[in-house]
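Re: weekly structure request thread

Next one in the queue (257 aa):
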Amino acid sequence: MVGGTITVELDLDTILHQRIIDKCMSLYQAGQFSCAALESMKQVELALKEISRTREKKTCEKITGKKRTGGNPSGVKLVETLLESKDGIKLTFPLDDESQKHACTLFKGAFQYYRNYAAHDGSNINKVICIRVMVLASEILDLIGASSISFTEIGGVEGLIDHGIFATESQIIALLSFLSSQVCPYECFEGLFEDLYERGYTDHQFQSVFDLGLIEYKHKIINYSLPGEPVDLDTFGWFELTDLGYMVLKNECDSIV
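Done, posted below.
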């Protein structure tokens, strides 16, 4: 306590989204607070655009069998398109039934108040305001389930190969296909990793498809007991392609055919 004021040491790495840490912390540490704040909101916009393009492309191909072409909304319009439409994205951690509506207001306010100001002026964004913007951007990224690494910024499938994460496109397809077919009764993963290693995959490749938001792990509680027996509850898990993972798998398979 200094002069009657309680001081708190804040470890930003524990509360910031990985995208914000990777893209904004160096700017923040260099004292470029307005740039760090603007980049934080740009990362939110990029994540929303990635989700928007993937969802609209998938929906359009399901309905018409054709790839979508057309406008590319940004900022507040992008938020309205994604959160206010009936088929828009759903929050990953809704607090209650009204959260979706209020989140849209929060997102639009963040763009109108912070992003627009940082983009056109930013002179009044100091260290404290910068931290607030980075934390807010992290909250939004978590709420929309943004991947920790941008698939767009890494360069898509070609980028994964250029960065040496995968050797070929077929290797990516095979991993996504394999994982999306796996189930884990009792959340036992030992056999899974043995199969991965036998197929020549590394832990880094396994982690990368999660970090990029191509696949996700889901689970639920199941009663394994038979009628009349004591309750035997345990967790059943499985791997599932995200919308982005589905599009990557489909596009790469189509290109091979």
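The chain has ten helices and three strands. The chain has two domains: 12-143, 156-256.
Next request, please.
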